[in-house]
Amino acid sequence: MAQKSFFFRNVSETFEFVIELIPTDNFDPENKKVINCDEKLKKIFGGKDSIGFLEFDGLISPHFL
After folding, report:
1. Which helix (H) or strand (E) holds 11?
2. Domain range summary for the chain, segments of one domain joined by +
3. Which residues make Cβ contacts (< 8 Å) with residue 15, sequence separation at least 6?
4. Which position has the higher pLDDT, 13 or 49?
5. Are 41 and 24 in contact (CB under 8 A)?
6. Are 41 and 22 in contact (CB under 8 A)?
7. What is the pLDDT of residues 3-36, one digit of tens each?
């Protein structure tokens, strides 16, 4: 199966897209600003077990040219 490719103009568009893809059970129940990463998200976010929303830009930026 071929992978889909997506084009995003900026980090904000990417943020909105990724947040929509994250299942609600990946959000920390005590702090909804923390995302608990599954194996797919760990590939995007540098192997971290969890990230905060404020870390998102810094972790996603290396994926842009």
Report:
1. helix 11-21
2. 27-65
3. 56, 57, 60
4. 49
5. no
6. yes
7. 666 666 777 787 788 788 788 888 889 998 899 9
Dihedrals phi, psi of 50, to nearest 5 degrees: -155, 155
- CA dist 18 → 12, 36 (Å): 10, 13
> Cβ-count burial of 34 within 10 angstroms (0-12 exposed, 13-18 middle, 19+ buried)?
middle
| Under 8 Å between Cβ of 49 and 36 | yes
Q: What are the φ/ψ torsions at residue 36 (nearest 5 degrees)? A: -85, 120
Structure token pair of residue 52: 């905060």
pTM of the full structure: 0.67
